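BACKBONE GEOMETRY TOKENS
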Amino acid sequence: MQLLFAELEAPAKALRAEHAGDAGPTPSRNLHSANVNRRKRLLVRIPAAVAASLLLLAGVLQSDWWQNRQADYHTVAGEQRRIALADDSTVVLNTDTALKVSLQANQRRVELLRGEAYFQVAHAAERPFWVIAGDTRAKVTGTEFAVKRAAAEVSISVAEGRVETSTVRNTDPILALAPGQTAVYRDGRAAGLEPVDLSRSLAWQQGRIVFVQTPLAEAVEELNRYRGDKLVLTDPALARRPITAVFAVDRPDDAVSALEQTLNVRARRLAGFWVLLG
């Protein structure tokens, strides 16, 4: 996606540079003609990049569609859903999440195909509760914890009880998590065990997204999970700007307005699919 957005932004930057050049002395007829031709070529590139982006978007939507077909439960962007399982456990699905459930006599198994979920597991020592997210898995007999799967990264955060995490291939040692701890796995390998601020990481259950000195690029990635269209940073210098803010998950455009006011950026809507911030 980043390469795609670069394709969209490159011609726009060139056009802005030309407009800046036009503010100087009047060029000769030949130079003016060359500039006109150059602008035409640049404007042709924008629809081409948009067409390519639509194809990529179609691929993403098709992937989500297939996961939804496999899932027993799923949510769309901006939706949250509470599910009561047959074993008296409860699962809360966050935005854009797909979940597959298999409850058997000797074990309970849930597969997180994408997204984020919070589990309140009914105690049953003889029936361990497994959550599988890609190559990462968590095992409990009764506790409360959250699992988030995004691209090649999986994080598991514990609110109550004890959770054992490992990889499907068993190449890493089992990590035992206590309340207030999170385990992060990247590309199927353990990346670390660290403390977690549950009031922030689980704020979505109260309908809030909390950022504290979060780089804007990371904040945009998180906000995009709740939006039908997508925010795109067109100015790389903005990516590292830290923000501290609280946004409501059901009012995504409030975040755009706040970013415009606090960071002095302009939001431009493109083709109904993206909001360019720069």
